[in-house]
Structure formats: C-alpha cells, structure tokens
Amino acid sequence: MAEEKKEKIVYISTYGAEDPERASLPFVLANAALVMEVEAVVALQGASVFLAKKGMLEHVHSAGFAPLKELVDAFLEQGGRLLVCVPCIQERKIDVTDLIDKAVPTAGGSLTEEFLSADATLVY
C-alpha cells in the first residue's frame, strides 16, 4: 500500500524587524500548519533574512502575537524548516556562520523545488 503524501505549504517572508506584524505572520501560520500535521517551510527573502541573523529575533515583537523568537523556536522545534536566500544574505553582508541554528542557506533552484513540491505557497 502506497504511503499517503503529506500536505506541504511554503511561506515566503519578505519583511523583517521593520514590520514586526508582517514578519510574525508567516511563523504564526506555519506553526498552525505543523499542529495540523502539514509540512511547513518558511523561506526568508529580501529584508527578512536579517531575522535569521543571531541575536535579531529577540528584538522583534508584534502586539497580539507571541514574541518572534518564541514563534521561530516553536516552529523549528516542531520540525519546520527555515530556508534563507543565499543571494539576499550575500547582498546584506551576512555570513552563513552568523545565521541561527537550523537556518538553511538556500539558492534559487532548491527554493523553486520547494515551491513545485508544495500544495500552496504564500508570500508575506
């Protein structure tokens, strides 16, 4: 008997600390997806790559949501995958050694594969 394919959703985050609400939303939704047993991936692009830099999450909190560090920690602890755009970190002079644990530097081809294998992709 063939194993049933697990549903998968990819959230593309483009906002960082400059907009805490928009930075938090992908992680709020990704945590909900994981609780619903849906595979969840968050891809950081543009300004949001700063969120993956060590020490940054502690400074981002939006009213109405848990602090972003708590949301990201919960996401990663539940098995969520955090992908970080390689050209985006290079442009911002962020070295891969400066990224938080479990953040995975990812280039365009790999990210496109994630989109193609997902049931849905949302951009925030």
Describe the structure.
With 124 residues, the chain is α/β, with parallel strands linked by helices. It has helices at residues 20-35, 68-77, 86-91, 108-117, and strands at 8-13, 39-44, 81-85, 103-106, 120-123. Strand 2 (39-44), helix 2 and strand 3 form a beta-alpha-beta unit. Helix 1 (20-35) runs parallel beside helix 2. The longest helix is centred in the first third of the chain and has 16 residues, at 20-35. The radius of gyration is 14 Å and the shape is globular. The mean pLDDT is 95.
How many angstroms does the end-to-end distance come to?
38 Å
Helicity range? 25-40%
Total helices: the number is 4
Please name the fourth-level CATH homologous superfamily: DsrEFH-like
Specify the structural class. alpha/beta
What is the CATH-assigned architecture? 3-Layer(aba) Sandwich
CATH class: Alpha Beta
Shape type: globular
What percentage of the residues does DSSP assign to strands (E)? 15-25%
Domains counted in the coordinates: how many?
1
The gyration radius over C-alpha positions equals 14 Å
Overall number of strands: 5
Largest sheet: 5 strands, parallel
* Average pLDDT reading: 95
